[in-house]
Amino acid sequence: MRFAVSYSTPLHGTDPDRLVTYARHAEACGFEALYVPEHVVLYPGASVGPVQIPPSLPFADPLDLLAFVAAATDRLLLGTGVLLLPYHHPVVLAKRLATIDALSKGRMRLLTVGLGSLPGEARAIGVDFRSRGRRADEAIDVMRLLWAGGEEGVSFHGEFFDFDQICSFPKPYGSMSLPIHVGGSSRAAARRVGLRGDGYFPGGMLTPDERAAQWGLARSVAADAGRDPAAIEYTRWGSIDMPAERVAAFAEQGVTRIVVGSAADDPAEQRDELTEFADRLGLRPPGSHQGSGMFSARQFWVPGTG
Question: CA 196, CA 9: separation in Å to the nearest integer?
Fold first, then answer.
């Protein structure tokens, strides 16, 4: 099992010193990665289900934020939870992601993409809300094509994107592609995982039965498409106070990574919560200043989960 932390600028603000201190402390505690969310724009009345979103929440650009974090840390992987893929042009996005990965020496490896749930956000960017799923599928294919392409150039002719013999450099660090994880709380998202995803990061409001059904659907679709279901990573949200027994239960469900975050307002309290979590679950040996980000208690290890 791997463990990551989230940092929410809507909750904690955009103070650079606070962000860097949090990220460095997470790295020292042995967490594998830092995840950040995205909204491009908000507006009065925007809501997710029954919950209204205050339009003044400061959602920082996730890739700019992660580039800043990369420059202030040494090994922390960089993740999005989630980046709203239909609202980014994949030719530009492929370049931005590869640049961050190259400059961070291979740490832009936990990109998680989603579709977005606010129609007004789509309208503001000029994207048809109803077609955003197809647009996201095409964008994934475009980025992978660009990363893999050489000096001869690559071409693509789709519903949303069209180009001939273009080249995109630099490439990701030591690689010709980047992992793309898929987030979402629908069966359509699960099918997208099976067809295109390197990992699955479902939303936190699903019932246990629906969550299991979607994970099973993702794996069965992958198998039907000739892909290896066992190669798909499975990330879940967890709580900062979760006990080891809960981690073991997640592992039995096939979960390979747990993301936790602190809702505390006080930065010192945030750091204390990360430290206590790391010590409770063995992310680092006692007295050490850095760990592997792996769950080390052997009694909770499940083969094939990490």
Answer: 29
pLDDT digits (tens, 9 = 90+) for 269-280: 999 999 999 999
Place of tokens 């892909």: 227
Per the document, the length of the chain is 306
CB contact burial 129-150 (16+ within 10 A = b; e otherwise): eeebbebbbbbbebbbbbbebe
Cα separation values, 212 from 1, 196, 218, 228, Å: 18, 19, 10, 18
Average pLDDT of every residue of the chain? 93
- Residue 202: closest CA among 114, 137, 83: 114
Q: Which of 79, 114, 116, 82 is nearest to 97 (CA)?
A: 79
Strands 2-6 and 33-36, bridge-based pairing: parallel
Q: Where are the domains of the chain?
A: 2-300
Q: Is the pTM of this model over 0.85?
A: yes
Backbone angles phi, psi at 257, to 5 degrees: -150, 140
CATH number of 2-300: 3.20.20.30
